[in-house]
Amino acid sequence: MKKWRPANTVQVKVIGVCIEKSRILVMEIYTDNKQLKGVRPLGGVVEFGETREQALMREFDEELGAAIELVGNWRGFENIYDHEGSIGHEYIFAIGIRLLDKELYSTPARVFSEDSGSLTRAKWIEVAKLKSAEINLFPPELVDYL
Predict the structure, then answer these.
(1) Residues sharing a CB contact under 8 Å with residue 89, sequence separation 6 or more, in sequence order
(2) Cα dist. 66→42, 51, 76, 101 in Å?
(3) CA end-to-end span of the chain, whole Å?
(4) d(CA 106, CA 118)
(5) Which one of 27, 34, 70, 120 has the minimum C-beta count within 10 Å?
(6) Mean pLDDT value across residues 36-44
C-alpha cells in the first residue's frame, strides 16, 4: 500500500468542525510505524472549480456518506508541517458543521477509505484532550477556537 506524503505544492483544504456537547468528530493520523500522531477534523482538498462549501459537503459525503449543514463563519489557517520527512504546505478553511443524520452523533467510530486507498477511522473524542495537548490536533492553531 502506498504511504501518504504531502503534495509537492501548496494545497487548499477545507475541514468541518463538528462539536457535540464536549466531543469533536476527528480522523486519526498515523506515522508510517502505525503510531498515532494526532487527529484532525474531517475534510480534504478543494478541487479546481469547486467552492469551499461544495468541497466540504463532497468530503463528508465521500468519507461518511453524510449530509452536513454549515454553521458560523469560515476561519483560515496557513499550515506548514513535516510528515515523515516530507514538508507539506496548505491553506485550510475551517467552519463549524452539523451532521444532518442525528444517528451519527451516537456512532462511536466509523472506518472509511482515504483517496490514497488507506483506511482511517473517524471518531468522537473529548475536546479537553485536545486543549490539554494529550492528543495532538492538526492544524495546531485550531485548538484556540474550540
Answers:
(1) 6, 9, 10, 11, 78, 79, 80
(2) 11, 18, 24, 7
(3) 35
(4) 25
(5) 34
(6) 95
The pLDDT tens digits for 92-140 are: 999 999 999 999 999 988 888 776 667 888 999 999 999 999 999 999 9
% of the chain with per-residue pLDDT over 90: 75
Q: Is the bond into 140 cis (omega within 30 degrees of 0)?
A: no
CA distance 29 to 72: 26
Statement: residue 68 has pLDDT above 60: yes
**Taking the alpha carbons of 124, 128, 129, 130 in that order, is the dihedral positive or negative?**
positive
Reduce the DSSP state of residue 32 to 3 states and report it.
Answer: coil
pTM: 0.91
Torsion-angle region of residue 120: left (phi > 0), alpha (psi -120 to 50) or beta? beta
